[in-house]
Design goal:
about 450 residues, mainly beta, eight-stranded antiparallel β-sheet, five-stranded antiparallel β-sheet, about 0% helix
């Protein structure tokens, strides 16, 4: 490995989850995600596409957040009725939708932007920036049963990225402050936040799957890239550590470019954390061995990166080869290039199996299943992107000219006939139902994923 300075050596057993402090990911809209509801400023939104039943209700086609028994969505409307003021809706209200009892308003968030809702151990945590320029973050804690507001506060910061820890005790955020960006932990119990000392400047972070341990890649005031692990397996704010349990300085490395393409990968088998970096013009992934504290390099791999469920393969890509994926054998660190029939591939790693679902991040085109174990691919009779999808075991549900179920293990494709145009699909694991919204009007549907039966339909009326 190139120059690395190890300041703490340790051994710990970690496991995997996808979490990111700098943005959303291709992990899909599902439970445990970042809970992003507010999507009205999407650069590809066109006013003519967003007109519903005259009130512009589905302004921006918002995402959905999932708790154990509810799906939450954002309803907006304006006085014009024609979506002429995309950024200035008259009202914005968060609604909770239950498959048995239907929709109910939860909180008026008019004036808040980048609204997120997270299912924490203390209750539902709703967050939003005040004003389109940000500057103040409003926090609300909702009772998990009644969904009434139990407490609220305001923080002088703009939070980018929100990820809840495995215990659901903490939420990691990137806090944009007048003096720069800091990595903060939001306390849903007290509705305050705490800065992680020495994790400021520029940072990306992901939680592990089974413990409240945060892996961090950050550039500090010294301009040096550090790889860190923070042990946050505590309950009280006062017990939070003052320093990481592991800090490795890599002076000749820097984060990979393109802002959101530096997501950290965490091995589900608890062996490695994978950090995508660059050495000059050369990209690489640094594998941190969690038993020995040693760092090993796999050259020529760009992020974002994801481990397969069995932990044997790390999947990334290569900016210099726009029609290829890079696969890293986590035992040997051998890098294999896989050609795919598209440019700038984006991929989804399911919860089960060794297959990937691949599409073009730029041009759409056919969806492709790639089988890592057998080095084989299947081009599917489905055109579209993976912008809106959700994962259920080895299945990936995609909104692509309708609602499509792709079973990666069997390579079977099933189209679900719907009497409406789907906007987003989210799997709700509690009732094991798909939540699908109508792209043109404030109507939501719960669908049985096994037979496509529409279990319930509700119209949200403000």
């Amino acid at each position: 490995m190139r120059n690395a300075v190890l300041t703490t050596v340790f051994g710990i057993n970690l496991a995997f989850t996808l979490a990111c402090v700098a943005g959303a990911s291709l992990s899909g809209n599902q439970a445990g995600g970042d809970g992003w509801l507010d999507h009205e400023l999407h650069p590809f939104s066109e006013p003519d596409d967003l007109v519903g039943d005259g009130r512009c209700d589905w302004l921006g086609r918002p995402y959905a957040a999932v708790s154990s028994d509810h799906v939450f969505t954002l309803l907006t409307s304006d006085d014009q009725g024609d979506c002429s003021w995309l950024t200035e809706p008259r009202t914005k209200v968060v609604w909770a939708v239950h498959p048995e009892t239907g929709p109910r308003p939860v909180l008026d968030v008019t004036g808040l932007y980048d609204v997120r809702l997270l299912d924490t151990a203390e209750g539902m945590l709703l967050m939003g920036e005040e004003g389109d320029e940000g500057g103040t973050e409003s926090l609300f804690r909702l009772d998990p049963q009644t969904l009434d507001v139990e407490a609220s506060s305001a923080v002088d910061a703009r939070y980018w990225g929100t990820r809840t820890s495995p215990s659901r005790r903490w939420v990691a955020v990137g806090a944009n402050l007048p003096g720069g960006i800091e990595l903060h932990l939001v306390d849903p119990r007290g509705l305050g936040s705490v800065a992680l000392a020495g994790a400021g400047g520029w940072a990306e972070a992901q939680w592990t799957a089974e413990q409240d341990v945060l892996s961090v890649m950050q550039v500090g005031a010294d301009g040096v890239l550090h790889l860190q692990l923070w042990d946050l397996t505590v309950d009280a704010v006062e017990a939070l550590p003052d320093a990481p349990m592991l800090d490795i300085a890599v002076p000749d490395a820097r984060p990979q470019p393109l802002f959101a393409y530096s997501w950290i990968g965490t091995d589900p088998k608890g062996r490695y954390v994978a950090f995508p970096v660059a050495f000059g013009a050369d990209s690489a992934v640094l594998f941190l061995d969690l038993d020995t504290g040693q760092v090993h390099e796999a050259a020529g791999v760009d992020g974002p990166v994801r481990f397969t469920p069995d932990g044997r393969t790390l999947v990334g890509w290569d900016l210099d080869e726009p029609s290829a994926l890079k696969l890293v054998d986590t035992e040997t660190l051998e890098v294999r290039t896989v050609k795919v029939p598209m440019e700038m591939p984006e991929f989804v790693v399911p919860d089960e199996g060794s297959e990937l679902l691949v599409s073009s991040a730029w041009s759409g085109g056919p969806l492709v299943i790639y089988d890592i174990d057998h080095d084989a691919s299947v081009v599917l009779p489905v055109q579209g992107s993976l912008t809106t999808h959700t994962v259920r075991g080895s299945e990936v549900w995609v909104v692509a000219d309708g609602l499509v179920d792709v079973d990666l293990e069997s390579a079977e494709v099933r189209r679900v006939s719907l009497p409406f145009t789907p906007g987003h699909v989210v799997w709700s694991p509690g009732p094991d139902l798909l939540f699908v919204d109508d792209a043109t009007r404030p109507e939501v549907h719960f669908i049985d994923p096994d037979d496509g039966y529409v279990y319930a339909t509700y119209t949200i009326v403000p």
